[in-house]
Write a structure and sequence with these properties.
By secondary structure, the chain is mainly α. About 75% of the residues lie in helices and about 5% in strands.
Length: about 230
């Protein structure tokens, strides 16, 4: 019986580390996606730990996850570099994203539970609200929750694994270029259409809405090539 207490303490400490790691990832992902940590910038565990007021171990774990998602590059003995943005890579990414996201939308519409459907309906309204206000920061935060909810509702761990490698890269590319080549309110409304179709259990409608969104994103991505920055 005396051994149970240390085991419980170790489990509680692990939970605390995981929670801090999740927080560190969320903060860092937003800093990178919203270009507060711009492409090509060098960062360190110590600097990020001071900035976020989170210990270095959770920061290290978060950076490893961001490296798997190709948002940062961890260079041995040289530190961490925020990854550059490449239009051609983004177009290749969209080829895969279209197929996976269409499947994801159908699965979520089929398998979402009542509480998840209710939240999808709420997110549709929040997307509409961000469109009316032309509020890009709020849209980005809602979009992240929407993506995570889609992954949970789809009940497909393989789809989740594929999407995890694409979403943040796509959101960062959009944030960099949308003011020159995209229409944020229209993009938010297209997201609302997907959320609403999933809430209603409309598999075909969700897949069609995904196609409309990806058509828009592909068009916008190609447009960035000719925009003078």
């Amino acid at each position: 019986m005396k051994r149970a207490q240390p085991v419980r303490r170790a489990a509680a400490e692990l939970d605390a580390v995981l929670t801090l790691t999740d927080k560190a990832y969320t903060y860092l992902e937003e800093l990178i996606v919203t270009l507060q940590l711009p492409p090509g910038s060098a960062v360190s565990e110590a600097m990020l730990s001071r900035r976020l007021r989170i210990g270095r171990t959770p920061i290290r774990e978060a950076l490893q996850r961001l490296a798997r998602e190709r948002l940062v590059k961890i260079l041995p003995r040289r530190g961490v570099i925020v990854s550059d943005i490449n239009v051609n890579s983004q177009l290749r990414l969209l080829e895969l994203r279209r197929e996976v996201e269409r499947l994801l939308g159908r699965c979520a519409a089929r398998r979402a539970g009542p509480e998840e459907r209710a939240r999808f309906a709420e997110l549709a309204e929040l997307f509409e609200k961000s469109a009316r206000r032309n509020d890009d920061t709020t849209f980005m935060r809602i979009d992240r929750e929407f993506n995570e909810l889609c992954l949970r509702a789809a009940r497909n761990e393989f789809t989740a694994g594929a999407m995890a490698l694409m979403q943040s890269l796509s959101r960062r590319f959009w944030y960099l270029h949308y003011k020159q080549a995209a229409d944020m309110p229209e993009t938010a409304k297209l997201h609302a259409d997907i959320a609403r179709a999933i809430a209603q259990g409309d598999e075909a409608g969700a897949a069609t809405a995904v196609d409309r969104l990806l058509d828009k994103i592909e068009s916008f991505t190609r447009a960035t090539i000719s925009v003078d920055f």
